Each structure stands twice: as C-alpha cells, then as structure tokens.
Amino acid sequence: MTSSALIIDGYVDEPACLGVAPYISPYIREVAGVLIEHGYAPRYVTIDQVRSDPALVAAPGRGDLVVMIAGLTVPGAYIGGKPATLTEVQQIGILLREPTTAIGGPIAFGYASGGGKKAIRQAIAGFDVTLSGSPAVALDAWLSGGEPAGAGDYSLTDPWCAAGAGIIREHPAFPYVMCELETATGCSRATVGGCSFCTEPFYGLPRYRSIEGIAEEVAALRAAGARHFRLGRQPDLLAYQSPGGEFPVPRPEVLEELFSSIRANAPDLKTLHIDNINPGTIAHHEDTARAALAAIVAGHTPGDTAAFGMETADPAVVTANNLKAMPDDVFRAIEIVNDVGGKRTCGVPELLPGLNFIVGLAGETAATFDANETFLQRVLDAGLLVRRVNIRQLMPFEGTAAYEENTLGKHDSRFRAFKEWARTQFDEPMLRRVFPAGTILSGVVVEIPGKLSFGRQMGSYPILVGIPLELPARTVLDTVVVDWGMRSVTALPCPVEVNTLPVAALRWIPGVGKKRAATIAARRPFGSLAEFREVAGETAIEDVMVF
Q1: Torsional sign, CA 194, 197, 203, 207
Q2: What is the DSSP string of 478-508?
Q3: DSSP letter at 435?
Q4: Three-state DSSP class for 192?
Q5: Residue 66's beta-bridge partner residues?
C-alpha cells in the first residue's frame, strides 16, 4: 500500500531563487520526486491555503509524512502570496503531532521578521528533523536511514525534478505557475569571500547543471501543463558552464544551446525569462557578454529583466563589502543591456536591467545615499531604460561578514528619504519611459479583485497593472497602458470598447478625464473614431479602440 505525504510550501526567497506564488521553487519539485522514489504519494499545499483552511494540516488524513519548505534570505514585497513567518512555521509544527515531520530550505540559515534585523539561527519547534543543505538530498538520506543532511548533487536531483514535476498541478494558481529552473548553485567569488551579505557562498563554488538535465525537467513540466519558465536559480546566468575565476568569461554558444533545448522540449511555452546577471561580468568581458546577452534575447520571450545586484553607488561601500562592481561598471552594464535588449517586440522592450540596492552595509554614510540618487539621476539623464529598482534593508545572516560589520539603524531617516526620492523622482518617470501610453500588456492575470482590480503578466518582475473594473480573480486579459503610478501602471482592457466601457473606466482614456467621460457616455454609441474625436479629441490609444 502506497504511503501518503504532504508538502507544505512556506515559500522561499534567496539571492538566487524565488519560490513565492505564482513562482514554485525547484525545492518543491525535487522533494516531490524524492517522496515518489521512496513510495509516497505526495500532495501539495501552500502556506496561503493553510491560512485559509488550517484543517489542511490539522485534520486526520494529511499523510504519513509532512515536509515543509520555507525561508527568506532576501525578503521583499509580495503580491501573489505571503511567505510563512517563523511563528506560523512553529504553529504548524505543533499542529503536526501525529505524522513524521521535516522542515528544510533557507530557513535553516536563520530567520528575521524583516529587513533591518539580524537573522537568528535556531531550532524550529515542532518538527522532528531539520533538513540541512539541499532539502531533497537531505530528505533522501534521512528516508534511507542516514543523517538528514547533504549537499546538492545534480546526478540525484535532476531525476527527482522530472519525477516530481506533476506536483505543479496542485498549485492553486495552476496553470498560471512560474516554474523557477535551476542552472547553478554557488558563487564564483566564493574564494574571495563573496559579497559581505550574501548567503550564496554558503553553497561553495559554482556547480553547473547540465543542459540535458534542465531540458528533461522542462519536458516533464511541460507534460504536466507548465507553460511559464524562468532560468532564475543561479547567481549569474552569463557565467553558466564557464571556467573558474572571479568573473568567468561568458560562453554565448552554450547559452544559445540552453535556450534552444528548452524551446525544443516546450515548443508551446508562453514565458521564458531570466533573473540574475552580474554587472561585473559584463564590465569585465564586454564583447563576450554582449554576445551572450544577444543569445538570451534570441531565445527568451519579450518583457524580460536582468537583475543586477548593484547594492550601492558608493565606491567606499563597494570596497568595504567586497561587492561585484563599481558604479561605473554598473552604468556600463546598463548601457550594454539597453543596447542589446532595448528593442521593442510587441510593444515591450526585450530585456532590461533591474537594479537592487541594499541599505545598512558596512561603510555606509549619509553621502552613500547622495551617491545612490546621483547614480539614478545619471541613468535618467542618459535616456536609458531600467525595468525596476528594488531597495531593501540588510538582513545579515550568521556566517556572513555583514553579520558582524554593518550600519543597521544608523541612517534610517536618510534611507526613508532615499526610498521616497527613488519612487517619486525615478520610478514614475522611468515607468512612463518603459511603458508609454498605448503599450499593450498581454495575458495579464488578475490577482487582486475589486473595483480597481490588480493583475500582472507572467514573467520576471512583471509590472503591477491596475484595471479600473471589477474583475474576478484569475481573469486573464490583454490591456493597454493609460497612466502611471510609482510602482504600477493603470490599464484598460484591450481592445478598448468605447461604447460599453463603464464611465469610471472611460475617464482613464488619455486626455479624457471625469467631466469629458460623462459627456462621452451621454453621446454613445459612436459609429466611428471620427465621431468619437468630435467629442473627446485625439488620444494616444486610438489604435486599439473599437466602436
């Protein structure tokens, strides 16, 4: 008789892995594969589902074994789901009295309630065992009678990833699930200590996954119904399968083969995006990096983002924290990505950089924030495009240099002022530049219903889209951009059906406003664009209006 098991996804977020809904991390699929290999029939629930119905973990029949995956080392702001807190994890552990229980993931490195606080490593109450290292390898060792620990080993995890692919069908957002694909673990700069704050060097020097292993997993995911993929579990995609060194030389031909293999195994995919790119790699190897970026653009889907771990624009802080690139290196990398990926396809740029800043690093002074603002203004003045700027407070972990040396709490007021400056003086004008009025955003999935519904496209750092209509959750529609906020855009359903659009939505047509919207509503129906213009004048979205 097959035993049953329950996987609880508490969500993970690390420097090189995102597993917060609608993303599903590789850890979940690997663990599912291990359970299947050991004769279990795994079920899957998210922490959001447990919050809505605690009986999912409290009721009999939850399984003979429960495995929970959780932990954040780079906490952020989330829309699709809320990661499990330490309190919730411990409460779940206490509820799970009868079956055997295990917990794994980055929570083993420590926990803090948010940025600006040290993460404390501690035992997780209520669980029989903590899976140390790779959760899947540790679980396999434990179920085989050994210690619950083990480093990642692709000869083991590749088959588990494929075997456990079907678990994605139990995700509450399925089929709109973004499958995070692992290409590597570890840091090429681990021999020089890595960045002071980063947990990726805990995994050692890079281990690169084979193209065959990735392709086989993609084939299994595609057979399970997956159509959205991100090559996100790696510290620097440009370094994929490159020889050693602090800044490995990119191999464009290998990236071309990687993307070709993924597409061959999922020919009907809808999203293929990336995540981390080291700006230092681009700055040190401009020609090969340019060719590698071109290979990515040729193989991915448009609207992609290359996340740059810039951290600071203060050279003194770069040096004090052994960071990857000086400000001028990052600026040059932004220029190159714009040059290679700035072309618009279906109205959106192919590939743009995203910038990550961290506040609270060693050596930071009030002048650091001046340098950050000056850098962002330089980007604006140069006419460059940046998809987004993330600003977070340091969460140092035991074992990193930043755990002992940091400036947490020393510049709180200046941090808040910098964040406000970035949102008002950089983000909004940049959004207008990246998503001008009339930009079509296709396949927006409504996540937050209401009189003003909010949704996002499937992708890497998709823009939040506010739609001034009451729409059910999981509605999928094409939209056209009509206005901008600091971190979001306002959009109307596309095509824009002028004769049936509610008055509250009509006012968002560029150039219309509240008063003219009432006049338009009173004069409807219009038989043509010419008739509409007589009342409303010209507008930037005429190409997508229907009468």
Answers
A1: negative
A2: EEEEEEE-SSEEEEEESSEETTTS-HHHHTT
A3: S
A4: helix
A5: 6, 101
Partner residues linked to 6 by β-bridges: 43, 66
**In CATH, what class is 1-174?**
alpha beta
Instruction: Quote the Cα angle for 161-166-167, to 5°.
Output: 85
CATH domain 183-194+234-267+275-434 topology: Transcription Regulator spoIIAA (3.30.750)
Is residue 32 pLDDT above 90, yes or no?
yes
Classify residue 357 by burial, with Cβ atoms within 10 Å: 0-12, 13-18, 19+.
buried
DSSP category for residue 62: S
d(C-alpha 202, C-alpha 122), whole Å: 17
User: Which of 90-99, 246-255, 284-293, 301-310 bottoms out in mean pLDDT, i.e. has the lowest?
Assistant: 90-99
Mean pLDDT of 327-349: 97
Contact (CB, 8 A) for 224 and 166: yes
Residues 447, 474: Cα–Cα separation, whole Å: 6
The rounded mean pLDDT for the chain is 94
Say if residue 1's pLDDT is above 60. no
From residue 231, how far is each of 64, 181, 414, 430 by CA, in Å?
34, 5, 35, 26
> Any idea where the domains of the chain sit in the sequence?
1-174, 183-194+234-267+275-434, 440-546
Question: How far, rounded to the nearest angstrom, does the alpha carbon of residue 351 sit from its chain's CA centroid?
Answer: 15
pLDDT the model gives residue 71 = 92
Count other C-beta atoms under 10 Å from residue 166's C-beta: 19
* Whether the predicted pLDDT of 431 surpasses 70: yes
Summarised one tens digit per residue, pLDDT across range 482-491 is 999 999 999 9
Nearest to 384 by CA among 345, 420, 354: 354
